[in-house]
Amino acid sequence: MSEKEENLLVIGHKGASTIAPENTLKAFKKAIELKADYIEFDIHYTLDNEIIIHHDADTLSTTGVLKTIKDTSLEELKKLNAGEGEQIPILRELIKISKGKIKLQPEIKAPGLVYDLVNILRKNNLIESSIVSCFEIIELLKIKEIEAKLKLGYLIPKALIKFQPIKQYIKRAVVNEFYAIHPYHMAVNKKLVEFTHERGLKINVWTVNEEEIMKRLIDLGVDGIFTDDIVLLNKLLGRSY
Question: For this structure, is 13 an active site residue?
């Protein structure tokens, strides 16, 4: 195994979501069993200000029931079936099963929760081991202001695959001393990887489930790959568990 293969981060997108319902404790436990480096998950605020883990702003796609998360209490959301009898989890539940076993990569999907997020990570001594990502730079800058030690990943929209507009994201990431950029895999080539690394940033790429694309990104020397298929990426990296 080469050094770049050995150091590449396997980031379980919504947990091990090819073999368990996405963003559930079951998917997160599977990611731990498969020895991913990080769990990536999406966070929102409930009506009663709990940080809950769910991709969309409403629950229709995962539960078949339409509830807008920000307008619904945790108690009501917990009554829904997120797949295979799983509940929609809250951040504190994920930390309880994952602490000391796997690192966390929350993606901020809703405004107003950064102070609670930072406080929960502080309370559990997870500041230095976590990466927080967001498409909205304003949310990342809020975190930077209140907790400079947190690693921040600047997500780049799927529509941006040309080098020139991505350069602007990289420049903003450098100026604000972020940890990484997180581009869509279609945007990633040798030029982008080299430009990013030359500026002291990591490059973690989303979301890749195809073997050939994984191989290409590994060869390019990216720092991390978000995937639903942890088993496949581990296999390509020579990590068998």
Answer: yes
